[in-house]
Amino acid sequence: MKAVRIHEFGGPEVLRYEDVPDPKPRNDQVLIRVRACALNHLDIWVRKGLPGVSLPHTLGSDIAGEIVEAGEYVSGFKLGQRVLLAPMHFCNHCAKCVAGLQNQCPEFTVLGNRVDGGNCELIAVPTVNVIAIPDSLDFNQAASVPLVFLTAWHMLVGRAGIRTGQTVLVLGASSGVGIAAIQIAKLFHARVITTAGDEKKLEKAYALGADHGINHYKHKISEEVKKITNKDGVDIVIEHVGAATWEESIKSLKPAGTLVTCGATTGPNVGLELRFVYSRQLSILGSYMGTMGELHEVLAHIFAGRLRAVVDRTFPLQDIRAAHEHMEKSQMFGKIVLNP
Ligand SMILES: [Zn+2]
Which pLDDT belongs to residue 91? Predict the structure, then answer.
């Protein structure tokens, strides 16, 4: 089969479209013909070099396709079935896994990070990862859902415990997590404030349900939040930007507010004013992916049409270098999807 592998870490030039042997499913696995694989910022981090990634390596976390072969022990699936894959690897037998807390498993990792991913034509996976999709969802949409919607659901519901009618600040409206978090917060009838770098992106955020938009190049986020909320601040901040926005995010919280973070796109080191944290009784929570239970929960909303994937652009898999360059320019609104 064809696959894109990296043999060294670096820029888009290290992505090599090449022939590799077809994977063979184990008795408890199915073989998926990959029809779509969406990009995430993780692809760029792994391409540049993360610990624990052995070379050569295949990137790609968000996969949709069809079942083309099933191992001897597999039941409940049929050949030709359209599916998406849970974008994670876990042992499925430790105390955390059997308790349904897969993202706390010692073996837990994201597909395409430390284990090979979906930038290829065929992938063999355990059936626990395989989830049937309705006809209403095309492969590009299906591949655009799992990682970011699971991440945003775990942040808002699992970690921050969002309640109906709260006020939520979602950073980065055009990012995958931003697009998911805006919609999930609206499911809970939240008042949503979001940020973006230009008016066009803010217009698209309003179309997803955002109530207020802040152009972060023109305005200080916390000052605008104070104006919008009549000096109250927000109950929850959805952070994934990191160093560039951290201080503004903390300042935007109301007393006893919750900041939940899942990423650090602009850098991982930030300052923290401890007197501000304890006197205002702030909660600062980390969040990483989510559980299989949460994935099924958020997918039910996707399948019913209450939440929707946003596809920015598709590229043939062999043009993956152009897809990475497009992502690194940050001009997109929604997911970039590769088609093998
Ligand atoms: Zn486990």
Answer: 97
> How far is it, in rounded angstroms, from Cα 306 to Cα 303?
8
- pTM score of the predicted model: 0.97
Q: Residue 100 C-alpha to ligand 1 middle, in angstroms?
A: 9
Rounded distance from Cα 84 to ligand 1 centre (Å): 21
Q: How far apart are CA 17 and CA 320, in angstroms?
A: 8
| Cα 101 to ligand 1 centroid, rounded to whole Å | 8
Taking the centre of ligand 1 as the mean of its atom positions, its distance from the CA of residue 107, in whole angstroms, is 6
Report the 10 Å Cβ neighbour count for 217: 9
* Å from CA of 336 to ligand 1 middle: 31
Ligand 1 centroid to Cα of residue 291, in Å, is 11
- Whole-angstrom CA distances from 215 to 177, 186, 333 are 18, 20, 15
Site of tokens 């199915």: 30
How buried is 157 (Cβ within 10 angstroms: 0-12 exposed, 13-18 middle, 19+ buried)?
middle
21-58 confidence digits (pLDDT tens):
999 999 999 999 999 999 999 999 999 999 999 999 99
Q: Which residues contact 218 (CB under 8 A, 6 or more apart)?
A: none
For residue 180, pLDDT over 90 is answered with yes
**Alpha-helical segments (H) within the chain:** 41-48, 95-98, 139-143, 146-153, 176-187, 199-207, 221-228, 246-251, 274-279, 292-303, 320-328
Q: What is the pLDDT of residues 270-285, one digit of tens each?
A: 999 999 999 999 999 9
